[in-house]
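ok so dumb question maybe but i'm new to this and my supervisor (M.) told me to 'just get the structure for Tetratricopeptide repeat protein' and walked off. so i did the thing. is this what she meant?? sequence i used:
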Amino acid sequence: MKNLLYGLVLLLFASCSSENNNQITQKEDYDIYLASEPRSNTSKYFELWDSKIKKDSSQLMSFGIVGSEYSRFFQNTGKIAYLKKAEQVLEKAVEIAAVGKAGYYRALARNYISQHRFMEALQMADSARATNNGINQSQCLLFDVHMELGNYDTARAQLDSIKDMTDFGYLIRLAKWNDYKGDLDATIRFMEKAMKKVETAKNESLKLWSYTNLADYYGHAGRIKDSYNHYLKALEIDPGNAYAKKGIAWIVFSHENRPKEAMRILDSVTKNYKSPDYYLLKAEIAGYMGDDLKSLNNLEKYFQHVSNPDYGDMYNAHNVSLYLTETEEYAKALRLAKKEVANRPTPESYSLLAYSYFKMGNVEKALEIVESQIEGKTFEPGILLNAAEIYKAAGYDKKVIDLKQELLSAVYELGPGTKQDIVNL
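this is what came out, is it supposed to look like this??
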């Protein structure tokens, strides 16, 4: 009996040690950031310039500054109304500008990118480039837009046109290009170089952007501790940053398998931050915990948010995925996937289209799309998981085997709920 008890103690100790070895986050690191107050939706700076805008105003500087502030409010709160207000102000600035027009074209293009209005963003970027003012900035923007549209050869040409290994803007885009090509080591190397530049320059907003993006890349590379530390660095600069908190919640959920703690973090975020995708993540975590009611409640909150017409096409991809996996509205998914391909013909959009055909039982059409539009053109694990399911249904066992190990190594990125799906391939 004594030996049995001793064995149980050892087993319990080993279990606890294993759990501790897997856990890298500590509440005391991030709890201080979870109680942050709601972000201010105004400032003396904003009120000063907003007051200068009258009906039929032509005070151009006021429009540019107010538009920038509305964009900042959107980033701070996730409320779509601010992004739409920024759009209105910037469109007015483009209309009335006689000088400095290129800058307003670029600002409006970035607003359209945020709204997933990529073709309109391209028009603004082309207009900015045509002015021959701020050529480098316009070429950077054109790279961004063409990457979003899946025009990769054109994007590469724009990247080559701005080549400068000492420039932050070039380095972050070179990192993005290497991520697209599947070279994660190079991606991280260039992002680290970019980060060091802004740390030296002490630009707080660019440091914040660099830390959160590098944290994402570290996570993809399995460098979870580095990812966690950089999300914390971001929160040191901006204690209310929802994206960094979401990143930490994902580590807690996907790496440490502590869904309750992840939910606690996200609950603190969604008190003040209203971006719809946060409710989707909460629904996923609740479903993983077996709390179907909480999962449904969060899905309802998501759909309530995206029913606002101001969101336009911003959540088409998310909606297609939900129609395919949650509501089983396959015909609805197919219609929306076709629209998404028309708006944005990327491997991601084609993956949604292929998966819609697959769910409707048209494996042949799904396979055709995978082979022509996805195979060899992306390294995104979510897209490859859908492709693997289609390959399996088509009897392409060798391709499934080739993908299976790669997908198992991406479970952190895909989420713990996908592991069994991959094993079952």
